[in-house]
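Next comes this protein.

***
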Amino acid sequence: MAEKKLSKAKQTILDILWPMESVEGADIFKAVKQTYYDRRIRELRESGWQIQTFGTKYRLISHEKLAGNERKYPSAEQKRQVLERDKGICQICGTADAHIQFDHKVPQERLGKTEVANLQLLCRTCNVEKRGVCKRCTLTTCDGCPYAYPEQFGSRFVVMVDKSLMQKIRADAVQNSITESALVAEFLRKRYGL
Protein backbone atom coordinates (compact mmCIF):
# COMPACT_ATOMS: atom_id res chain seq x y z
CA MET A 1 0.00 0.00 0.00
CA ALA A 2 1.36 3.43 -0.94
CA GLU A 3 2.15 5.78 1.90
CA LYS A 4 0.00 8.91 2.23
CA LYS A 5 1.67 12.19 1.37
CA LEU A 6 2.50 14.29 4.42
CA SER A 7 0.68 17.57 4.99
CA LYS A 8 2.73 20.73 4.51
CA ALA A 9 2.94 21.25 8.31
CA LYS A 10 4.13 17.70 8.98
CA GLN A 11 6.69 17.85 6.16
CA THR A 12 8.00 21.18 7.52
CA ILE A 13 8.34 19.68 11.02
CA LEU A 14 10.13 16.62 9.66
CA ASP A 15 12.49 18.86 7.64
CA ILE A 16 13.29 20.94 10.75
CA LEU A 17 13.96 17.80 12.82
CA TRP A 18 15.86 15.90 10.09
CA PRO A 19 19.36 16.99 11.30
CA MET A 20 18.48 15.09 14.54
CA GLU A 21 19.28 18.05 16.77
CA SER A 22 17.05 19.39 19.56
CA VAL A 23 14.64 22.07 18.36
CA GLU A 24 12.55 24.35 20.58
CA GLY A 25 8.79 24.00 20.18
CA ALA A 26 8.57 27.78 19.72
CA ASP A 27 10.79 27.51 16.63
CA ILE A 28 8.59 24.76 15.20
CA PHE A 29 5.51 26.90 15.89
CA LYS A 30 7.07 29.84 14.00
CA ALA A 31 7.84 27.61 11.03
CA VAL A 32 4.45 25.86 10.72
CA LYS A 33 2.25 28.69 12.07
CA GLN A 34 -0.12 26.21 13.73
CA THR A 35 -1.14 26.52 17.36
CA TYR A 36 -1.45 22.73 17.60
CA TYR A 37 1.95 21.92 16.07
CA ASP A 38 2.38 19.43 18.95
CA ARG A 39 -0.59 17.49 17.57
CA ARG A 40 1.17 17.26 14.19
CA ILE A 41 4.28 15.95 16.01
CA ARG A 42 2.12 13.38 17.80
CA GLU A 43 0.65 12.30 14.45
CA LEU A 44 4.17 11.94 13.01
CA ARG A 45 5.09 9.74 15.97
CA GLU A 46 1.95 7.66 15.53
CA SER A 47 2.82 7.14 11.85
CA GLY A 48 6.21 5.71 12.88
CA TRP A 49 8.66 8.63 13.10
CA GLN A 50 10.81 8.41 16.22
CA ILE A 51 10.55 11.87 17.79
CA GLN A 52 11.51 12.42 21.43
CA THR A 53 10.34 15.27 23.63
CA PHE A 54 12.64 16.88 26.19
CA GLY A 55 10.67 19.55 28.05
CA THR A 56 9.90 22.11 25.33
CA LYS A 57 12.34 20.61 22.81
CA TYR A 58 11.88 17.94 20.16
CA ARG A 59 14.42 15.73 18.41
CA LEU A 60 14.24 13.12 15.69
CA ILE A 61 16.27 10.17 16.92
CA SER A 62 16.36 8.09 13.73
CA HIS A 63 15.83 8.54 10.00
CA GLU A 64 14.18 5.12 9.96
CA LYS A 65 10.39 5.24 9.96
CA LEU A 66 8.85 2.37 11.92
CA ALA A 67 5.46 0.75 11.31
CA GLY A 68 3.61 3.19 13.59
CA ASN A 69 0.26 3.10 15.31
CA GLU A 70 -2.15 5.28 13.37
CA ARG A 71 -4.68 7.33 15.32
CA LYS A 72 -8.28 6.18 15.05
CA TYR A 73 -11.03 8.78 14.99
CA PRO A 74 -14.62 8.29 16.19
CA SER A 75 -17.18 7.35 13.56
CA ALA A 76 -20.26 9.49 12.91
CA GLU A 77 -22.36 7.00 14.90
CA GLN A 78 -19.96 7.06 17.85
CA LYS A 79 -20.00 10.87 17.81
CA ARG A 80 -23.81 10.88 17.79
CA GLN A 81 -23.92 8.53 20.79
CA VAL A 82 -21.36 10.57 22.78
CA LEU A 83 -23.12 13.86 21.96
CA GLU A 84 -26.41 12.40 23.17
CA ARG A 85 -24.92 10.82 26.32
CA ASP A 86 -22.88 13.91 27.29
CA LYS A 87 -25.75 16.28 26.37
CA GLY A 88 -23.43 18.40 24.21
CA ILE A 89 -21.52 19.86 27.17
CA CYS A 90 -17.94 19.68 28.39
CA GLN A 91 -17.62 16.89 30.91
CA ILE A 92 -15.04 18.78 32.98
CA CYS A 93 -16.36 22.34 33.26
CA GLY A 94 -19.97 21.91 32.12
CA THR A 95 -19.94 24.58 29.40
CA ALA A 96 -21.68 24.24 26.05
CA ASP A 97 -18.91 25.15 23.61
CA ALA A 98 -19.79 25.76 19.97
CA HIS A 99 -16.54 23.99 19.12
CA ILE A 100 -16.95 20.99 21.44
CA GLN A 101 -14.28 18.33 20.92
CA PHE A 102 -14.29 14.55 21.17
CA ASP A 103 -11.62 13.36 23.58
CA HIS A 104 -10.26 9.91 24.36
CA LYS A 105 -10.54 9.57 28.17
CA VAL A 106 -7.56 7.23 28.14
CA PRO A 107 -5.36 8.70 25.37
CA GLN A 108 -4.52 6.53 22.39
CA GLU A 109 -0.85 6.97 23.32
CA ARG A 110 -1.75 4.93 26.41
CA LEU A 111 -3.64 2.39 24.31
CA GLY A 112 -7.06 3.95 24.89
CA LYS A 113 -9.60 2.63 22.39
CA THR A 114 -11.81 4.58 20.04
CA GLU A 115 -15.08 3.36 21.51
CA VAL A 116 -18.02 5.21 23.05
CA ALA A 117 -17.10 4.21 26.62
CA ASN A 118 -13.65 5.82 26.20
CA LEU A 119 -14.86 9.02 24.54
CA GLN A 120 -16.07 12.23 26.17
CA LEU A 121 -16.94 15.76 25.15
CA LEU A 122 -14.55 18.53 26.21
CA CYS A 123 -14.51 22.23 25.42
CA ARG A 124 -11.36 23.50 23.71
CA THR A 125 -9.98 24.97 26.94
CA CYS A 126 -10.40 21.79 28.98
CA ASN A 127 -9.07 19.63 26.14
CA VAL A 128 -5.91 21.74 25.89
CA GLU A 129 -5.54 21.64 29.68
CA LYS A 130 -5.98 17.85 29.72
CA ARG A 131 -3.42 17.45 26.93
CA GLY A 132 -0.91 19.47 28.97
CA VAL A 133 -1.54 17.40 32.09
CA CYS A 134 -1.24 14.15 30.11
CA LYS A 135 2.12 15.27 28.66
CA ARG A 136 3.56 15.68 32.17
CA CYS A 137 1.82 12.64 33.65
CA THR A 138 4.04 10.00 35.21
CA LEU A 139 1.23 7.72 36.43
CA THR A 140 1.12 4.17 35.10
CA THR A 141 -2.67 4.21 34.64
CA CYS A 142 -5.39 6.75 33.92
CA ASP A 143 -7.70 5.18 36.52
CA GLY A 144 -8.73 7.80 39.04
CA CYS A 145 -7.57 10.73 36.89
CA PRO A 146 -10.07 13.63 37.07
CA TYR A 147 -9.35 14.50 33.42
CA ALA A 148 -10.02 10.97 32.19
CA TYR A 149 -12.97 10.31 34.50
CA PRO A 150 -14.46 13.68 35.54
CA GLU A 151 -17.79 11.99 36.31
CA GLN A 152 -16.14 10.46 39.41
CA PHE A 153 -15.48 13.92 40.83
CA GLY A 154 -17.47 16.94 41.95
CA SER A 155 -16.98 20.44 40.71
CA ARG A 156 -13.68 21.82 39.62
CA PHE A 157 -12.20 25.10 40.74
CA VAL A 158 -8.97 26.82 39.78
CA VAL A 159 -6.43 27.85 42.38
CA MET A 160 -3.51 30.04 41.37
CA VAL A 161 -0.32 29.32 43.35
CA ASP A 162 3.16 30.81 43.15
CA LYS A 163 5.93 28.96 41.32
CA SER A 164 7.76 27.69 44.41
CA LEU A 165 4.58 26.17 45.88
CA MET A 166 3.70 24.60 42.51
CA GLN A 167 7.15 23.02 42.31
CA LYS A 168 6.64 21.50 45.76
CA ILE A 169 3.17 20.22 44.84
CA ARG A 170 4.50 18.65 41.61
CA ALA A 171 7.43 17.03 43.38
CA ASP A 172 5.18 15.67 46.13
CA ALA A 173 2.67 14.35 43.57
CA VAL A 174 5.42 12.56 41.62
CA GLN A 175 6.89 11.12 44.81
CA ASN A 176 3.46 9.77 45.80
CA SER A 177 2.55 8.63 42.25
CA ILE A 178 -0.64 10.69 42.15
CA THR A 179 -1.78 13.69 40.14
CA GLU A 180 -1.34 17.21 41.43
CA SER A 181 -5.14 17.55 41.62
CA ALA A 182 -5.43 14.37 43.68
CA LEU A 183 -2.73 15.61 46.05
CA VAL A 184 -4.52 18.93 46.63
CA ALA A 185 -7.89 17.17 46.99
CA GLU A 186 -6.38 14.79 49.56
CA PHE A 187 -5.04 17.77 51.54
CA LEU A 188 -8.45 19.48 51.46
CA ARG A 189 -10.25 16.29 52.59
CA LYS A 190 -7.89 16.04 55.56
CA ARG A 191 -8.32 19.74 56.33
CA TYR A 192 -12.10 19.42 56.42
CA GLY A 193 -12.16 16.02 58.13
CA LEU A 194 -13.67 14.13 55.22
The helical segments are 8-17, 25-32, 37-46, 76-85, 124-136, 163-175, 180-191.
